[in-house]
Amino acid sequence: MIEIIDEKCIGCGACLRACAYDAITITDKLASINLDKCTLCGACVKSCPFDAIILRRKEVQSMDKSQYSGIWVYAEQRDGVIAPVVYELLGKGRDLASQMEAELTAVLFGSDIDSLPADLIAHGADKVIYVDDPALKHFQDERYAKAMSHLAQKYKPAVILAGATVMGRSFIPRVAVQIHTGLTADCTGLEYDPESGNLLQTRPAFGGNIMATIITPNHRPQMATVRHKVMNPLPRDDGRSGIVILEQVDFDFDSQMSMWLGFEKEKTALVNITEANIIVSGGRGLKEARNFTMIEELAESLDGAVGASRAAVDAEWMPYSHQVGQTGKTVKPNIYFSIGISGAIQHLAGMSSADYIISINKDPDAPIFKVADLGIVGDLFEVVPILIKRIKEIRA
Ligand SMILES: Cc1cc2nc3c(=O)[nH]c(=O)nc-3n(C[C@H](O)[C@H](O)[C@H](O)COP(=O)(O)OP(=O)(O)OC[C@H]3O[C@@H](n4cnc5c(N)ncnc54)[C@H](O)[C@@H]3O)c2cc1C
Prior knowledge:
About 25% of the residues lie in helices and about 25% in strands. With about 400 residues, the protein is α/β, with parallel strands linked by helices.
């Protein structure tokens, strides 16, 4: 609960400036708080020179954290193929496991997946717990959440990590609610704090303008989804050995709120951007959808994939699966072309770790040039056709 003490408030406006949520107004030299907007972050309390704001938080009941140990990585698979982000999480998980002197476990769900645990052990897992059940053949978040919650309550891991993929983003929040713990979504960094025993979970906040480090001090497990391509996988080692446990979960099909009807693959001939070594991305500077054929042609001439800014996706010039950035995909190609893209912070959040960035923009002051290794100031409608012609000549 938060309240203003009228007798102390002089309406100086310090709290108004401190509030990032536009939740405070000053009328007749008195502050008032809009509780619909207020997130109880406490920034106004600290900013008030007159101690005129009081924030009362509920006493949080701490649980017995000593019962929880080990790091779990959700081993996402589709049609028997492990998602690449899983190997990255196992790489990071190994590092955390050695700092925490804990075991690293991969948790796998699906049907006919007996061959996958060995692969997870070769990539760093000490143990694999898996549920092999026809009910888990197709991803359904209610069932996957039930399976994960059941296992987490039984084994009590200290940490659960999952990829911030369509699947992970869909069912992992349900797990956090079911087992009553916190979840940090879309992390770009994870570290262990040996003093507190907490996992430091870092992610962009406030539209990517700051990096926030979040902890789960009172609850276990500590849950995080992590973006693809921000952690490094370990080299495969088939000499590693580990423990494999087959588990069973009872599903209550009568209480299901959703049904699996079918799976329709996106109809596109374009290469998946998260796996591509070269990405050619277009933005609003392309002016209209049909001009994206130029981007596709350049990508094709380089055996690359097509990316897009959110402006281009919002204009329906490209499907969402091609969006690069904070609310799209994080990519880490060898070469990233940004064409007609200004370089907003939210776009940079998804591509600035590319090895080599080539930008084409007619505005010499476009922010994209600050991260570009090679910048071409010019009209993309003149530059791109020349590039395509030259690349085709060289490759021929
Ligand atoms: C919460 C949030 C999340 C977001 N997530 C994302 C995200 O995931 N990804 C993302 O991309 N954006 C995201 N955005 C949007 C982002 O802030 C920008 O609005 C967006 O990236 C702009 O796209 P753009 O660069 O294509 O368009 P603009 O900013 O309009 O830039 C177009 C550029 O094209 C150049 N240009 C124009 N004509 C030509 C020409 N003929 N030749 C050469 N250059 C030309 C212009 O100089 C300009 O720099 C997000 C925003 C918010 C608030």
